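Hi team, as promised in this morning's meeting, here are the two structures we talked about. I've kept the exact order from the run log so nobody has to guess. The first one is mostly here for context; it's the second one we should focus on when we meet again. Sequence first, then the predicted structure tokens.
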Amino acid sequence: MTGGPDLDPRLFDGSLAAVAVLTGPEGRLVYANQSFTRLFGPRPLGRPAPETFPDPDAYRFLAVLDEVRATGQARQVVGARRTDPGVDGQADHFVYSCSPVTTADGDGILVVALDTTPETWTLQRYQALISAISQMVWVMHSDGSMEELVPGWEQLTGVPWHPRADEEWYAHIHPRDRENLSRMWRAAAKADAPKVFEAVFRVQAADGSYRHLATRSVPVLRDGRIAEWVSATADVEHSWETRLRERLLAQVAGVSGSGLQGAFGELVKVIVPELTDACLILLLSHDEWPLPDNATVSARRVASATRPGLPAPPAMRGQSVPLSPLVREILEQRQPRTFLLPPGGPVPPGLVPAVTERWLAAADSTSITLIPLVVDETVLGYAVTGTSGDSPVPDDSEIELLREVLHHAQRPIRKALDLQQARRTALGLQRTHLTEPPRVPGAALAARYQPASSTGEIGGDWYDAFALADGTLILDIGDVAGHDLTAATAMGQMRSMLRTLAYAGGPGTTPSAVLARLDEVAEGLSTAPLATAIHATLRPRSDGDWELSWSSAGHPAPLLIPARGDAHFLSDAPDLPLCVDPRVPRTTHTHLLRPGDTLLLYTDGLVETPFEALDDRLRQLAREATLCQDRATPELLKTLEGLSDLRDDIAMIAFRTDTNGGPPGRTTQEGT
């Protein structure tokens, strides 16, 4: 260093570093230690630098010497030279520094070189290895900067590599993945015991679509701290689509919701949020296909789901929309169609119910796609999927996957359709037997039937009321075991036989005798596997009272709701159910109904539930009936029906004596 003490080169004789000293304006070599000779070969002393270093690639070194001599500033350079061109053309790699010094021979330059050949070859092998794999490789340093080692980002996204994981970099990540990816990365970076970080996320490609990337990052530790992360990232779109498709189709195959609405309710939960932000199902009100040209057809919403973070979908209240010409066209072509929704703009009319239009606006929806629902070549309705906020509009591959998922839902939907058709048939058969109760002078009479909410739970309950020739009123109620079309058929047969036997027996036949005869006939004809029933007769007396006689075949006890006082059960123990043992004798019970008293007959669907004890439910029924004893009989039945969870169908019939001879009540039947 100029101005300091003279440098004695002999200090470097035993140094592992290659050291040389050059002096004077011509850069004459005055010193080279053994390490320098091993690295660069023997060099003559006392000659100018161009003669000392005549190698073809030494011009760079000579230029550095001239620059240091001219500026007086030290330089550090990475270099390479072929020491033995005959050996596979291999070159030595080294890093050297040139610093101005003062020697006994005047101003000079100290050259210090280190052999980096092994490290360089190792790096070259690593770069060749990672360049041979179809992955992007990058490094994130401790200061947050990122360096791309094996390029691929620009080829995928169409934009240059971004050197930091900031908002600009995350802008290329799918909106649904940004927050989760950022949170996972921060957690991995702050972990006390850092582990390999793995994640799958979507990146927007140059064509605007999104592709799934899988990244695996390994922490590099120095002194127990993370110095950097080395990451390999691969495009896994194809394999991800394959796995997603297999998983969704497996979930669809497992759909087993109760009834058509239940099946679609499970289906939309498979689709959301995996494939879309929202999905609703609308079924056509018309069964014929193709649709008649002049038919008035509507589409009713039966199921919907939305991803977390969006407003909850409107309550399911059977909202419908008249089928517009545009929707008719889509259904006839059986091809999906996507509609872009302008910010704050209206939804094309006639696509969805009004409540859904309002929801789409509240959810900042950007697009909706209509996909026809086709089962056995019949269009049942259509699915509407939607994107909201910054979610991208679905591309062709995503819509095709949606179509495939909906198509594979045909099996559970077909099963639900079969159950629905069986339910309709059973209900139709049921209603042909649930006739209007007769008008009864001096009394009020009302009946009610409510099918179960479950598609399969239908078909076994019945009631009946008719008058014999002498004015005796017959009341029957019963329940055939089973909840299907077979049970509905057996119910019709049992009801018809009981009515025939009661009428043929006449006023003098006791209820127990009628049930005993019914038991014999049902057993002989194998009408039903098991049934319960109450057969009752009511005869008016001149003083306004009514004589009640009844026999119970394993049926819930009649409930008496007196004009004054608490309701209570006529709790004589019932006989065996029907179709068990016709040889066992049956019993007739009697009771006197006072003016204003109400008799309630009902089936077990009103009181039985898997969550409460039967005795508790019966007490609840008696309390509620007491509170409602002043209500008209139709209103009484409607109120009491509210006690049921509708897991089973319900039949009820109420008879009330009347002190003033007012008009009788009417039958009431409700349900689908």
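And here is the second protein, the one for discussion:
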Amino acid sequence: MTKTNRRRGRKDRLKQVSEPDLQPPVWPGVVGGRLKPLSAGEETMVEEAALKLLDQLGLSQAIPSMIAKVTAAGGSMTDDGRLLFPRKLVNWAIDEARRGFTLCGQRPANDLKIEAARVHMSTGGAAPGVFDLDTHKYRDSTLQDLYDAARIVDQMDNIHHFSRSVVARDIEDNALMDLNTAYACLAGTSKHVSISITEPQNVAEIAQLCYAIAGGEAAFRARPFLTVMVCHVVPPMRFAEEACDVLELAIQAGFPVQLISAGQAGATSPATIAGSLVQAVAETLAGLVFARLVDPEVKAIFAPKPLVADLRTGSMSGGGGEQAILMAGAAQMGRYWDLPTSSIAGITDAKRLDAQYGAEKTLAVTMAAHAGSNIVTQAAGMMSSLLGVSHAAYVTDNDLLGNILRTIRGIEATPENIAADVIAEVCRGEGHYLGEQHTFSRMKSDYFYPEIGDRRAPRDWEEDGAQRIGDVARDKAREILNSYFPTHVPDDLDRMLRDKFDIRLTRTQTGRPE
């Protein structure tokens, strides 16, 4: 090959590299589900045990409307006040549950298709604390922190969904906190948002806020962009009465709902992994029955999220192998029934961005995702066993999650990908693949490249300041917070919302002129 041809070939390759990705290396909804920690026989045992508990033990503290609906559908009340769910009714709830639906973003580009084993990464937590970007110490979280978390996530390609991550502890009134939590999340990101609602009487105002943003109630019901997360049980096997009221009202208002059981192994659920899993599955299925009796077409997400305790102290411990395998098993049961499923994973016990953080988060998120959880919550930003959030960690986790998504995508062994003809051509030619068209055509579609992960030689890294990954992430987080203020809520709509609702984030805090 002449020097001129080599130059021309290099220029052509550079042109190809600079062209937009036709096929990115990872995307929202990469299909998982290959990891199955439960054998087929164990799946059946978990199912049988859960159905037996619901049929013969039931749950206590059911609200009147639930009792009326379940007993009218074939359930019954025991003398000691437990509501029994017959197998036929539970199987109806599972078999006829809505599948293959979309969790909408405020912008359609952020829509998430929830079906089969498609995997999406999410924040989460409701943490009471924040690891401060500047002081590197924990402090109480605020409404501003929540808005800041949402707008960082809005810029992270591999965090697909924003679940309320911190509590606005600077707002004491529950109704105001719920309203402003919804506003801060929805103003901070156009991705699908999930929040909790503390009291039933607060549902209506949050619904009105969403209707106003959507352009009317009908528009929101057609494209709901906010899910209400409901911990409808207080384990073991008791309903949370106010939460069940919230669940019923949220469904009636048109919200998708996430049905969460979060017992703690050894404390509020059995110490064994299998026992904790069975209880969480049973409690979540009871919520699914009620949700579908309220509205058979509800967008309901099966979300058994059993947690683990360190039995030496009784404190919650989210970073161990027990939590990872428990979440993978919960996700597998969701796939067993082909239910839209959410899992909790990534609640590392680490207190800052360090080796413990990366190891524990990677272990848990990888297992839940490979087991096929549709929404993996707490996968980004969360640390300190659900007690704290780091804004810088959203930036590092964007890389971590991209790499995990790439592993879920798999090897994709096809005749084209095996590339036997390319191997033969190279072996008979120059003996390497660096200049091959096949290499350049795949370098962006098949390989995930980290945004802040450092792959340089040690000397180059040292000459550039030898920054630790946490320092790089903090700089990136500050850059976003200083320059990026989302505008998907138009200015005139934002002013209208402030006239109608008691919004506590100032326009200055959201980057808008007063």
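Starting points for discussion:
The CA atoms of residues 280 and 304 lie 5 Å apart.
Residues 3-28+411-442 form one domain.
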